[in-house]
């Protein structure tokens, strides 16, 4: 699955970091730096974002899960446009009434806020970003791009449609 995500995402960014806490050698074999969580206890997607933001060299960091292989080829451009147009700190993809907070573009200068949230035991993405200037960017035209694929069979089925 991750190979599909990397194929779409790498073309949109200047740097790729993979967050993983298991099977590190398998992820390293993909040719990108692998960053484990700095926060213990498998704290979820926010811990992965935190780890990536700590090492990223760019002002903006995009996050996408490895189980959504059909992410839009213009994900970063559209999130970036929304971020700039609204002076936001974080842009989140949204389809119709459903936000997809693991598809987000985040300003690195919110790293101290994220670190404090995690140290305080926070784990819910929407609870963290509720205190930030957030813009939800509509992707209604690509709603299927955000679906979750968990098996090779589901992937084959989705690709055949």
CATH architecture: Alpha-Beta Complex
Instruction: Kindly state the percentage of residues in helix.
Output: 25-40%
Uncertain stretches = none
User: If you average the pLDDT, what whole number results?
Assistant: 93
Compressed to H and E, one letter per element, the order equals: HEHEHEHEEHHEH
CA radius of gyration is 15 Å
Oligomeric form of this entry? single chain
Helix/strand-derived class?
A: alpha/beta
The beta-strand count equals 6
| Widest sheet: strand ordering | 3-5-4-6
Query: Percent of residues in beta strands?
Result: 15-25%
In CATH, the topology is named: Spore Coat Polysaccharide Biosynthesis Protein SpsA, Chain A
Task: Describe the sheet with the most strands.
Answer: 4 strands, mixed
Please identify which CATH superfamily we are dealing with: Spore Coat Polysaccharide Biosynthesis Protein SpsA, Chain A
What is the CATH top level name? Alpha Beta
Shape, principal axes of CA atoms: globular
| Secondary structure tally, helices | 7
Total number of distinct structural domains: 1
